[in-house]
Amino acid sequence: MGAIISLIFIAFSGILLLKKYNPHAVLLVSGLLMLIIANLLNYNLPSLKVPTGFSGFDLFRYIKESFSKTNAGVGLMIMAIGGFVAYIDKIGASDALVYVAMKPLKLLKKYPYVAASLVIPIGQLLFIAIPSAAGLGLLLMASMFPILVNLGVSKLSAVSVITATTAFGIGPASAITASATNIAKVDTISFFLNEQIPMVIPLSIIMMITYYFLNRHFDKQLEIEKQSHSNEEKQVNSPLIYALVPVFPIFLLIIFSKILNLFNTAITLDTTTAMFISLFLGLIFELVRTRDVRQVLNSLKTFWNGMGNIFKTVVTLIITADIFAKGLISLGLIEGLLDLSQSFGFGVVGIGIVMTIMIFLASMLMGSGNASFFAFGPLVPKITNKLGADATEIILPMQLSASMGRTVSPISGVLIATAEIAKVSTIDIVKRNIIPLGVALLVMLFYHFI
C-alpha cells in the first residue's frame, strides 16, 4: 500500500513540476503529505535527533533538522563555492583563466566537442580526490565551464559533461565506496583497484563517445550564443596571474587529499575551507593590484551576495528534496519494490539487475546517490545469503548505479547548483545526461552480469 501511494505522489509531483509549479513548494508539500500518511498508516518514520513529543510538531521538526544538517555540511559548501564563483567573476579571474587556457587549447577550437568529452575522464580523476558531486561540479563550473563555452560548445553541453564527471562515485574517499566495502566485507583499496577501476574505464570511454555525438547533435538544433563562437579574443583587464585563483581550490584539495598522502603529519582540508583560503588569495591579489583597502574590503559584498543567491535558489531546493525523499522512504517504496522483485523468483543475476536498476531510479527520485544506496545496500547480505551468492557480485553495479542515477536527477544537488551558475534548466541537463548514462547503465549490466 505504501509503495503504491508513494508512486502516486511521484507521478503527481512530476506532473506539477512539468507544469512549471514552484519546485520548492511541490517537493516540500508532497514530502510532508507522505510523512503524514505514513504516520497514519503506522509506518516507521525517519528518526529525529530531538523529537518534540508530538507527531504533528515532529513533521516540522524534520524541516528544521534538514536545514541544520544541510547548512552545516553540503549547504555551506555550495554557498561558499557560489560566493567564490561570483567573486572571481567580479575581479576578472575567470576571464584571466579563459585567456590563459585558450592559448594551448586553440588547437581544439575546431574540435570543441572533443575537448568537452575529455573533461569527463579528467573530472573523474578529480572526483576520486574531491568526493563531493556538488563541490566538484561547482569547482569545474568556476574553472572549466568558461573555457568550454569559449571553445564553442553551448552552455548545456558544457554543464552536461561537467555533471557527468560525478557519475561514478569511486575511490577510498567516497562515502558510497566505504559503505559498499563495509557491507561486502572487503578491503577498500583492493575493491577500488580490482573492481571499480576495471569497470569504470570502459564506461567512461563509452560516455565520452556518447556525449560527443549527442552534444554535437543537440547544439546543431540550438542557436548557440554568438559570443561563444566569437573568434575575437576577450579583453582581459586583470593580471594573468589571476588565472591561478579559480583553479587554486582544486590544487589545494588534490595536494592535501588522503589519496596522495604527501605529508608525514596528516593534514585534512575540506572543500569549504579550500574555498575560503582561495577567496583570501583573490583578496590579496586585489590588494596588491589596487592598493585600495576600502575597495578590496567592499568587494567582499560580492562573495556574500553570491552565497545568499545560492542559498535561496539551490540550498533550499536541496532541503525540500530531502523532505521529499524522507516521505518516499517512510512509505516503504524501497522495500516494496524489493519485495516485488523477489516475488518473481529471480536468481542472483536477476536480483542483481533488478536492484541495480531500482537503485538507479531511486537516486533519480531522491536526488541523492548516498540516500538511495544507504537504503538499498544493507539489504544485500540478506539477499545473497538466501541465494547462496557472494555480496560482491551485486554490490559493485549497485554502488555505481547510485551515483549514475544522481547525475540524471533534476533535484540532485550537483544539477541544481551547476544549473543555477549556468542559468539553464535542470530538466534540460537531464535531457542531455539521460541517454549517455542510460547507455552506460545498460553496458554495465551486460558487462557485469552477462
Short note summarizing the structure:
With 450 residues, the chain is an all-alpha fold. It contains 23 helices and no strands. It is globular and about 70 Å long.
Q: Would you kindly provide a written description of the structure presented here, covering whatever features stand out?
A:
This protein has 450 residues and is an all-alpha fold. It has two domains: 2-64 and 311-449, no CATH class; 74-225 and 232-307, no CATH class. 76% of the residues lie in helices and 0% in strands. The protein has 23 helices and no strands. The protein has helices spanning 2-18, 23-40, 55-72, 74-91, 93-105, 112-129, 133-143, 145-151, 155-164, 175-184, 188-220, 226-229, 244-255, 271-290, 293-298, 300-330, 333-343, 348-366, 369-376, 380-387, 392-406, 413-422, 426-449. The longest helix is centred in the middle third of the chain and has 33 residues, at 188-220. It is globular.
Classify the secondary structure makeup into a structural class. mainly alpha
Into which percent range does the helicity of residues fall?
Answer: over 70%
Average pLDDT figure: 85
Number of strands: 0
The overall number of domains is 2
